[in-house]
Amino acid sequence: MQESTSKRPYRVYWSLVWLLTALNLGRFYELSTPFWLLLYQVALIGSYALMFIAIPCLITRVTRHHLPALTAIIAVLSAALVQLTLYFDSMLWQLYGFHINGFVWNLLTTPGGLAALVTSPSTEQDLTLLGLSVLALYTVLLLASFFLARIPLPLPRAAWVIPLFLLVTSAERLTYSMSHFYGYSPVLESAQATPFYQPLTMRRLLEQRLGLERPQHLEVDGVELKGQLRYPQEPLKVIAPQKPLNLVWLVAESWRADALNPKVMPQTYGFANQAQNFTRHYSGGNGTRMGMFSQFYGLAANLWFPVLDARIGSPLIEALQQQNYQLKLFTSARFSYPEYDKTMFVKVPAEQMIADYKGPTWQRDRRNVERMLEFVDNRDPAKPFMTFMFFESAHANYDFPPESVIAKDYLPDFSSARVDLDNDIEGIRNRYLNAVHHLDSQIARVIQHLKRKGLLNNTIVVLTGDHGEEFMERGRWGHNSAFTDEQLRVPLILHVPGRAPFREALRTSHVDLLPTLLPLLGVTNPPEQYSIGYSLFNPQPRRTLMAGEWDSLAFMTEQYKLVVPFSSANFDALKITDANDSDTQDPQAVLQQLLPQVQEQMRSLRNFLAR
């Protein structure tokens, strides 16, 4: 009798936790008709809610016998952790269209990753308040369970819960498998909305064993590349120029192409008109990692992982170090996230890399510009130099000082934990414009200093962004969520001594930077040995560009965009749009048209793997 008395409150508690978890999961879906689709979504919600609480429930079942004093604490903490995880996942899904995945885990576990999240004092306060509120809620729920346990209500028992769960989840999996086979989108979209969903497909069984015929569908092999790298394909051959050029490389976080205009960035815009301005330029990724990777390697995003595993530095840095360039690199974030210190700058001594990651981002940018100018002034003028800087102030929360306000109707502060994109997006966009206006002043400080010191005559200047930034033009805010032009197109301004100013309207890519710059810096290897790009001074019409993210690659022609997951087993299937990011009339025909370009691009990438 005593065991029954101690067991019943926890049965009540976990029944209530299951109900709250199901309600929490329901926020991921737009409950739909017809009735059977609604029934499928209810089966998803109920079965996954049970799976999410199963392990915490079993743990308390064990501790109730062996550690009874800790059982209540474990029950509250574990249930709260489940709900907070689902809440965080729902934020990701709402804002960026993906769930907690390898990219998010990398962000949480890599030094500097958390700092790259959208943070502000109000965000941190809201998240702290949320955590405390959830803990309080489940404490009250547990106390209430001891009271409710006295009421003789029927409670779920394992003897019938487990068979019912197996029946429901089997029916759900069978429904998904058949929908995947026949390409029924409403079911696939519901499954895609489910956190941590594990798809089950039965294509081989249905085709080969049961003889069912699959209708036309969109399918192509995954584009993941694994294996030992052969990069560059041949060792770099460097013949130092008689008059070596200095290199100043400035990259701004989230700098989208249309922000370079006379109103928002008058000084940088004026410099662009005196330099080489590439007006249809694309990043190699919709996030920082892949955008920077494409700049410093000239490769597509699916080769990031082999490069990281092999700890291979950028050939640009190797060419400069062979010629004893003076190097000084600055970031207003960290060199550890993304893993620049294990990839492109892996061979740069730590004392040559300065990371300033404390305080408002606009203040970090100003301090780093000051340090950069001091480096330029104090260098050995008898030797060439290279300096790099990563500006952070245009990253959300979009920081700026009062004197940089040009869009006055901005959101004073916002918390990513409770952002209301429907009502706040214009105020958020105005914060971004003010931050980019401040960025303009800091870029101008560098350019004006180079002019005053007479260095522009022998210095290459690169100005660009790591990726763009979307403000709900295509249904998303920020970056890392889609391959829209808003998230991919960035400014690119080059100043190459001896080159006349011009504007280039053909499409260009970050992968074109190394084929353009390395020959100017003494590298004699053919560009195809270290890049898939072309010289920016010889842009190619009608080419297929590539851009990537953590687990997919986009192939972009003048007419279409095709997004292919790295793994062919990825149930979030291919995505095809036109070049303006709108749905196409006949995606199957478009896929057949694009496949030759995809195959050609993949062959060029496989050349960088050892045979």
Strand fraction: 5-15%
As residue ranges, the low-confidence spans are: none
Shape: globular
Distance between the termini: 70 Å
Mean pLDDT equals 89
Class from helix and strand fractions:
alpha/beta
**Beta-strand segment tally:** 16
Radius of gyration: 27 Å
Per DSSP, the total helix count is 17
Helices and strands in order:
Blueprint: H1 2-26, H2 35-66, H3 68-96, H4 102-109, H5 121-148, H6 158-182, H7 185-192, H8 203-209, E1 246-252, H9 266-272, E2 276-278, E3 281-282, H10 288-297, H11 304-310, H12 315-322, E4 326-331, E5 353-355, H13 361-378, E6 385-391, H14 421-452, E7 459-465, E8 470-471, E9 477-478, H15 485-488, E10 492-495, E11 502-504, E12 508-509, H16 513-517, E13 545-548, E14 552-556, E15 560-565, E16 575-578, H17 587-606
Parallel strand pairs: 1-6, 1-7, 2-11, 3-12, 4-5, 4-6
Antiparallel strand pairs: 2-10, 7-10, 8-9, 13-14, 14-15, 15-16
Please characterize this protein's 3D structure.
This protein is α/β, with parallel strands linked by helices and 611 residues long. The chain has helices at 2-26, 35-66, 68-96, 102-109, 121-148, 158-182, 185-192, 203-209, 266-272, 288-297, 304-310, 315-322, 361-378, 421-452, 485-488, 513-517, 587-606; strands at 246-252, 276-278, 281-282, 326-331, 353-355, 385-391, 459-465, 470-471, 477-478, 492-495, 502-504, 508-509, 545-548, 552-556, 560-565, 575-578. Helix 2 runs antiparallel to helix 3 (68-96). The chain starts with a helix and ends in a 5-residue tail after the last helix. 40% of the residues are buried. The model has no long low-confidence stretch (mean pLDDT 89).
